[in-house]
Amino acid sequence: MKKKFKIYISLFCIILFFPIKSNAASVQCDLFVKTLLNNPDRGYELLLGDVPINDFGFALQYDWDPKKNKTYYRKDKSGNFIVGKVHSLSLGKELKSGNSIIKINDKKFTNSEEQKELLLKSNKVKFEFFDKEKGNFILELERKEKYVHVVLINIEDISINSIDQKQAVYEARFKYDFSKVYSKAAYENLYNIADGTIIFDDNGAWNIDVCIFTEEEFKNSRILDPGFQMDLLNITSKDNDLFNVHYKITPYAKKYSPDNIDSLYIQKKIEGIFGFRNNFNLRAFPFDKQKLSFSIVDGRYNLDQRNIFISERTHLFLNEFIQKDDIPGWNMTGYELNPFQYQTAFHMKKNFSDGLKLDILIERKHGYYIFKVILPIILILMVCWSVVWIHPRELESRLTITIVCLLSLIAYNFVIDAELPKLEYLTVLDWIILVSYIYSAIPNFLTIASFRFIKTNEQLSMKLESYGKRYGPTSYVAIVIFIIFLNANLNPENIGASISWLAGR
Fold this sequence. Notes:
With about 500 residues, the protein is of the alpha+beta class. The protein is about 30% helix and about 30% strand.
């Protein structure tokens, strides 16, 4: 995959790291737009495939290693390589991003040098994949060569403002851009218009002008918007007052600097505060971890026409962002970037477009719940069970203590309900409180039974009291620990790292 996009990546590297000079003058930019509008050949208004792809319709999924500052291929729990971007429309229905690659030509796929050579030179290869829903399946794929329109996404800044798990939403400020390199080789007419307008002779020395346009100004230029109908999914709200979109056109010319490649770098820069609907799995609450999901999809073109790629700068930023760890009540533990195939009713269940999903991995800081909820509940239960050391004849004193303890537990339940939605399942804390209710009621019944038996069967009464002293508090603590242990093993993907050892992880 890297070899296929070598030229394209080189363009972006030059753009990202070579210093740009801007005169911030609008005259040249205005001339550039006027020349565009007067030009009869407007191929730059159309979506043109300009990046060559020659493979079997998919690429391996890769991640970024911040320590080594390079990419590496991701593997599943069994050590199998994973399907990354699927960029063939004909494969969209059969193969999904995230499927595991088991075998090629009936041999386990290890991405060895021999297998790399096979994938580079063979025209037809037999693949065996694994899907969580349909299990193992086999596809015989043929090599196909095509040209696609590639758009690069760069995430510049993220700020998580709030997380409302009761409403299943989170609010965040996102600053990102869609960018496209228009090389002279693919867009000669567009570049020639730039050469002489925003690439110009300034008293015998070649100079460039970086142009900044509003949405309306860029629309009037009739250049294809790099982020045209790129949509954010699951948006619940958008602050229109703080929402900003502008366009930036940066020219690169060999005549300005010999290190440049003749091209135009066009960015659609977006900044705003958005509310996103998010799925929260709260079964392990308050020892849970969650994913804050942010998805971008192509709402217009299919997989064969336009593909979305992530810049390396995005990986660098996300690693720095995770290290900040500035979400109150949560620890940021990492992130995942995953491509996926997007389908709408418009596509008639046959067409797929490209999508990209960012998951910010967070883990709840459970210290608050341990010290201000769970431990007080345990202390309340200890107080409740202390009545077994009061003589059974003291009925009124013992009942007063047990009933007050029960009412205290009900108050704590209201505190938890204020933070969580009405769930169809019980969280870890719900189970602890439920068991606490039961264990707060037992001393009440034990008190009544002992009081009755003290008159008729004092030996039985003392025996009940002895069992209460010996097994009551200790069995409660044991059950609380068992609840946490059981949840850690039933929901290992949702449990926080601090107690994941209970699941042997």
